Amino acid sequence: MTLLSVKDLKVTFNTEAGVVEAVRGVSFSLGRERLGIVGESGSGKTMTGRSVLRLIRPPGHIEASEMLFDGIDLMAASEREMRALRGQRIAMVMQDPKYSLNPVMKIGAQLTEGLRLRDKVDKATALAKAIEALEAVQIRDPERVMESYPHELSGGMGQRVMIAMMLIPNPDLLIADEPTSALDVTVQAEVLSILDALVRNRGMGLIFISHDLRLVARFCDRVLVMYKGRVVEELAAKNLMQAQHPYTQGLLNCLPRIGGSRAPLPGLDRTAAWAE
Amino acid sequence: MSLIEIENLSVTYHVGGHDVRAVEGVSLSVAARESYGLVGESGSGKSTILRAICGLAPVSGGTIRIGGEPVGAHRSKAFAARVQMVFQDPYASIHPRHTLDRTLSEPLAIHRLGDTDARVVRALTDVGLPPAFRFRYPHQLSGGQRQRVAIARALMLEPEILLLDEPTSALDASVQAETLNLLNRLREERGLTFLMVSHDLAVIDHMCDRVLVMQHGHAAEELTREALAGAQMQTDYARTLFNASADRMLEA
Ligand SMILES: Nc1ncnc2c1ncn2[C@@H]1O[C@H](COP(=O)(O)OP(=O)(O)OP(=O)(O)O)[C@@H](O)[C@H]1O
Ligand SMILES: Nc1ncnc2c1ncn2[C@@H]1O[C@H](COP(=O)(O)OP(=O)(O)OP(=O)(O)O)[C@@H](O)[C@H]1O
Ligand SMILES: [Mg+2]
Ligand SMILES: [Mg+2]
After folding, report:
1. Does the residue A178 lie in any domain?
2. Where are the alpha helices (DSSP H) in A86-184?
3. Among A59, A85, A215, B119, which residue has the least CB neighbours within 10 Å?
C-alpha cells in the first residue's frame, strides 16, 4: 500500500549568484517500509525530505507533478493543513538536531509541550512519557537530560533527544535525516531497532537519509541513490553492495576499513558522463 | 616529551542542581606528529576532552600541557595560532549570519595575516567546495558542506595541532575520503599533530596511530593501531565496539 508518492519533484533556489537546482526531478513511492536515501554531500537528500513537509524557505521553490500522502495532495494543501500534518502525522528528525531544538527551552519542556497542549495530557503523564521516550533511545540519565538545555548535551545525545521527540506523537511517516550519524555502533543499534519495530508493528513509513552505505544496506528495504539532485539508481538494500551504477560502486570503494591500507583512499571519478 | 599531555583530567558540569561528571581521571599523551584517536559511547566525554584543551570546559582536576607548558585559564592568541579545533556541531565555529568569505577571512584579520583572497579560495578548494561558495551564507549549504567549511576555517591559521571532533561524520563516503586524504596530506607536509574523535572505528584505524576507548567519562582502554586491527582488545566494551563495527558486519 502506498503511503507517500512523489513524482518529478524539483527544488530550486533563486540566489543572487544565479539559480541553484537542488533537486532535479525526483520520483519515488513509499509504503509501510524503510526507504533509504544515500548520496553525495549536497546531492539534495535533505531538500527532498524537507519538501515532503513543504519546509523549504523562500527563495526556495518546490514543484512536483504529484506529492500525495495518504490521499492528501501535499502540493494543494493549505499552510494550515500542513501545520496539522507536521509533527503529528509526518515527522522529521533534522540533520542538525541542536540547531533544530529550541536553544532557550529545557529538553523536558520541549518533549512534553505537544503532549500537554495538543493531546491535553496531564503533567505527570506527559513527564512519564517523555522519560520513557528518552530511556528508549538509551539516554543514561533521563531526569538530568530533561533539566538540560540543548547546548548541554553531547552530539549524539542531541540526536537521540530529537528522535525521541519525533516519535512521541506516533507519526505515520517519519523522515529521519542522518539520525544516527553521531552515534557509536552500540547505541546506534538500539535506536535502529526502535525505528524497525515501529515500521514492523505499527506500519510506520520511514525515509532514512544517510551517507552510511553499509548501514543502509543492512537496515533498509529499498534504497535511492542520489547524485546532483537526481536519483541515479534505485535498488533493494540487500543488493547495495553489488550496485551497478558507477557512482554507487565508486562510493563503496572509497570507504576505509579496519586493518586496511593507509595509502590515500580512492577518490571518485566525477568526469564520466553520468556525472552531468 | 609529548606535545599534548593530559594527566588525570576531570571535568564536571553543573546542570539544574546535578553534577555531571563528564570526564573522570583521564590521562593521555600525544607525541608531536602523531595522530591519536578517541572513540566510545555517545556522551562518554570525548568532545569534552577536546573542549577542555581549548579552555571551553569546566576542568575540576588534573593538568593539560601543550609542549610542556601547562595551559592556564585563558587561551592566548598564540594558542589559537598553534591549536585549532573543528567542532562536532559546525555552527559552533561558523557564524550563521556571516558569509563564508567573512567566516574564513576573520581569523586572518585577527592574526594580521595578508593574502586573504588567495587563502580563502585555496581553503575552499582544499575541502572540495567551489570558490563561488564564498559569498553564500551557512543556511545556503547542505550539512556536509557546512562541516567542510568548519574544517577549512580551522586550517586558515595553519595550526600545528588540530583537534578534530567527528570531522567527517556528516560526509558521504567520497567526500569523507577526500577530506581524510587532505588531512593526512597536510599532516605529512606540515608535520601536524591530530587528536581526533570519531565513532567510526574504520576511520580511526585509517587515520590514527593509537586510540583511546572511552566509556561513561572514563578511559576504558588504549590500543595501538596494530592491536585494533588484530582485535587484541582487553576490555569487553572495546570488543563490543569492534565486533559491531559496520565494516566488519558485512563481511560476516
Ligand atoms: N538556501 C539555499 N540557497 C542556495 N542553495 C542551497 C540552499 N539550501 C541548499 N542549497 C543547495 O542545495 C543542494 C542540496 O542540498 P541538501 O541539503 O539537500 O544536500 P544533502 O544531500 O542533504 O547533503 P548533505 O549530505 O551534505 O547534508 C546543495 O548543493 C546546497 O548547497
Ligand atoms: N555545556 C554542558 N553543560 C552540561 N553538561 C554538559 C555540557 N556539555 C556536555 N555535557 C555533558 O557531558 C557529558 C559528556 O559530553 P560529551 O559532549 O563530551 O560527550 P561525547 O563523548 O562527545 O558524546 P557524543 O559522541 O554523543 O558527541 C554528557 O553527559 C553531556 O550531557
Ligand atoms: Mg543533508
Ligand atoms: Mg561529542
Report:
1. no
2. 97-100, 107-117, 123-136, 142-146, 155-167
3. A59
Give the closest residue to B99 by CA, choosing from B141, B134, B72: B134
Which ligand sits closest to the CA of A51?
Answer: 1
Q: What is the pTM of this model?
A: 0.93
How far, in Å, CA of B170 to CA of A47, rounded? 15
Peptide bond preceding A264: is omega within 30 degrees of 0, i.e. cis?
no
- Position B252 scores a pLDDT of 38
Q: How many structural domains comprise chain B?
A: 1
Q: Is residue A202 part of a domain?
A: no
Question: What one-character-per-residue DSSP string does B82-128 give?
Answer: HEEEE-SSGGGTS-TTS-HHHHHHHHHHHTT---HHHHHHHHHHHTT
With CA atoms as reference, report the closest residue to B145 among B175, B115, B174, B107.
Answer: B175
User: Structural domain of residue A133, as residue ranges?
Assistant: 100-168
Q: Give domain status of residue A228, yes or no.
A: no
Residues spanned by the domain of B142: 4-251
Reduced to 3 states, what is the DSSP secondary structure of residue A10? strand
CATH number at residue B223: 3.40.50.300
Average pLDDT value for residue range B9-21: 91
In chain A the first and final C-alpha atoms are separated, in Å, by: 34
Lowest mean pLDDT of A44-58, B34-48, B174-188, name the range: B174-188
Can you tell me whether residue A65 is helix, strand or coil? Answer: coil
What mean pLDDT is predicted for residues A129-157? 93
Nearest CA to ligand 1 atom 16: A44
Chain B contact for A58 (CB, 8 A cutoff): no
- Compute the distance between CA of residue B149 and CA of residue B45 in angstroms, rounded to an integer: 25
Task: Give the cell for residue B233.
Answer: 582488545
Give A139's contacts in chain B (Cβ within 8 Å). 43
- Interface contact flag, B132 A156, Cβ < 8 Å: no
Q: How confident is the model at residue A273 (pLDDT cuts 50, 70, 90)?
A: low
Count of structural domains within chain A = 1
Domain membership of residue A177 (yes or no) is no
DSSP-derived letter for residue A86 is B
